[in-house]
From TrEMBL:
This is 3-ketoacyl-CoA thiolase. It comes from the Bacteria. Residues 261-381 form the Thiolase C-terminal domain. It is an enzyme of class 2 (transferase).
Amino acid sequence: MARDAVIVAAVRTPLAKRNGGLSGVHPADLSALVLRGLAERTGLDPALVDDVVWGCVSQVGEQTFDIARTAVLSAGWPERVPGVTVDRQCGSSQQAVHFAAAGVIAGHYDIAVAGGVEVMSRVPMFSAITEGTSPLGELYAERFGSEFPNQGMGAEDVATMWHLSRSQLDEYSLHSHQRAAQAMDEGRFADEIVPVTTADGVVIAADEGVRRGGSTEAMARLKPAFKPDGMITAGNASQISDGAAALLVTTSERAGELGLTPIARVHSAVVLGDAPMPMLTAPIPATRKLLDRSGVSIHAIGAFEVNEAFASVPLAWLAETGADPKALNSNGGSIALGHPLGASGARLMTTLVHHMRHNGIRYGLQTMCEAGGQANATLLELM
Ligand SMILES: CC(C)(COP(=O)(O)OP(=O)(O)OC[C@H]1O[C@@H](n2cnc3c(N)ncnc32)[C@H](O)[C@@H]1OP(=O)(O)O)[C@@H](O)C(=O)NCCC(=O)NCCS
């Protein structure tokens, strides 16, 4: 039997607002909580895990020193279980799933955990860039200029390039909140959320970023966040947040031996680069590459998770791909729920597999824009 890679379980913490309910939790501890949650939900003996592949963007301070390994040890898992930390910027933990799946298919792993974390309250975005230094050297500057690429300006450029209006961005974002609120009210996240009990005994069980009763009028009053005459605001950008997510990846054969029921198979996985500025366009060619590789038509796909880094990103993607808008981010996205950078790839995939299972959707596609102008794209098939 040819080796495949299947997802047998997927869990996440609630996503908390910046300085909200999870801001008192160390990122290694938050990671450990989802690892424990995964083991508890599956009954899996953690000693069987061959590797933990963990996305994290700001690998500095509390998030450095290979946080994947610290998370394993903090979870109480056996010392023999290793962990490795991955940086593909906002797609880090989607990349972690790709690495885990490839390792399982290759036979390097029988069982792997893929996931990620970011506690942006404690380790702010860009905090790995130290005063007076730049990750970009002279050769980069000769090619692309010395200005540091700014994702908000990239989102502005994407809105302009695809002729998107401020009201289109705000309307899309309002829908993200409405869809997330409906998903919460209908208990659609119940199977995926591992509640977190903080040190002072407070139980955080629900996503904090979702706004109810919003309006496009209130959103229209928000000031541009990145340039004075711009369209990108706090309302149509992803929120800065805290969270962690994890998926258990193995072969269907091993899952059967362990008595675990696979949810979805990793059908195809690609990654691709596009221009480093406007930075956020790569999900479009990555989707094309994925469709070409898989031979599956966009019209056969019933669920899409396209990360809402900014509203202009999924809207440009939609305009180019012709995907069904109703199937796009139907449980809300990072605008409503939040975008804890290193956790988001695994968070989106967790929501995607549960959504596919609940609704009997055969194919689901995920893609995310990433700093540096890259994108991962994954096609899942329900089992
Ligand atoms: C856009 C951004 C700069 C805004 O930051 P911020 O100003 O600190 O955002 P806040 O959450 O404090 O919101 C600002 C205001 O907008 C309001 N607001 C936010 N969303 C709103 C909505 N949907 N409706 C009405 N008001 C809203 C907030 O209530 C807040 O109001 P206040 O100032 O009266 O308290 C920040 O969210 C950001 O950088 N996002 C992108 C993160 C990122 O780049 N991730 C990587 C992707 S590539």
